[in-house]
Amino acid sequence: MNNIYFIGFMGTGKTTISRLIAERLNMKWVDLDDMIQQKEKKTIVEIFRENGEEYFRNLEKEVLTDLAVERGYVVSTGGGIVIIDENVKIMKESGLIITLVASPDVIYERLKDDQSRPLLQVPNPLEEIKRLMYERAPFYIKGDMIIDTSFDEPDMIVEEILKEIEKRKNGKGTC
What we know:
Blueprint: E1 3-8, H1 14-25, E2 28-31, H2 32-40, H3 44-68, E3 73-76, H4 85-94, E4 95-101, H5 104-111, H6 125-140, E5 145-148, H7 154-171
Parallel strand pairs: 1-3, 1-4, 2-3, 4-5
Helix pairs in contact: 1-7, 2-3, 3-4, 5-6
């Protein structure tokens, strides 16, 4: 099977859901941000603070490009990976893109105490969530399927995704 990429705003459940999907499909799971941190030997916060967002986005594209030549991975990506069109193209050509979404209020509740989110270290994080989600919405809709994670439990979300993957595999053979 080709790779499966999970995209979506921070706090939508990409790590949790992608890990469960990898287990269910007996595929390898990776977190793109973890791979970047290992490569740089720094946290995402340190990379942003020391080198800026543009440097981070270039690293992200480089790691994604290297991973895209592999097969059989379920990949949890960072929330901003989609702002570079080439990243979306790389993911489309090497696998299935699943977009996870949630309401801004749900995201805020999930992330309000998380100091590891550099883009949310602002005076009004909820307004920043709304602004960034609005800005990124045209990119997130490029996913092959869009799943709302606002209210369902992870197991229910996983079942929904697996059913959709099976339909696509049987109907179009895209996986």
